[in-house]
Amino acid sequence: MSETNDTNPSLPDLDAEHWLQAYEQMVKIRTFEETANDLYTSARMPGITHLYIGEEAIAVGVCEALRQDDYITSTHRGHGHCLAKGAALDKMFAELLGKEAGYCRGKGGSMHIADQETGNLGANGIVGGSAGIATGAGMSIRLRGTDQVSVCFFGDGALGQGLLYESMNMAQLWKLPVIYVCENNQYGEYTHNSKAAAGSMVGRAMGFGVHAQAIDGQDIRTVHATARLVIDRARKGGGPAFLVCNTYRFRGHHVGDIDRPYRTREEEAEWAKRDPLTLLEDWLLKSKQAEEDVLERIKQEVKTAVDDAVAFAEEASFPSESEVDQHVYA
Question: What predicted TM-score, i.e. pTM, was given to this entire model?
């Protein structure tokens, strides 16, 4: 199910510097995830992780439209959201490796990274579990009278969770400034959404009167333009919005899901033609907003920063055993 009903929103007047910043953020997420996979396959990282490779345009496109004091909630596939909202590479890798220097002092791991300073209220290992948190943040914004916005990222698998609909119903009734971003990567774990989500995805939100639309999640320019519109609308009291960003995870459900028997190599090859990084690269070059050497320099600088962050994380200390019962709430 990959419905689209976007109206091709006009792009804001953004200069080359903005798009190069967005490109750098996307490269950072891609490189981070590839490195996380290497850490897992080389047995240097405890536990598994869920890679965001292929979906980078959504996190960056949305978060580039947010302010630092705006909120986001994330998912088990959340590294991209954390980085796009401003998380530091060294603290991210430290958390993946269970080190004290990590965002949650090594106790959260891959699926539970939070960073209050950048407005990241936390990733969540429960499918759809952050809908209530993001909506609660929207309620807090309303009660405090600020013009902040709360963004809830989730996958298409969350469309089977009642909490999402209860939250959207409340947000629409009270006109809360919450943007629900469904990253429709076609599969909920190993099941195609055509076998799990009946009817129209955007129609589910429209049933509550929520502004809803489906867009191309591989094109960061479309994602960003749409995000700016609904975020500005929410800041001005227009209420919540629901975006279905059609995308594809290029890797398996998690790092151990290598063979992927539930989908074909032909399908993967077709989606690979719409790699969000390649689409932005091609546009930057064709529109003469960047030269190839500039893009290559960005890749090299990001690679160096990622390597330095991994070195920091590997050398960092594990938390003391005396902390085992601290900062634990369940």
Answer: 0.94
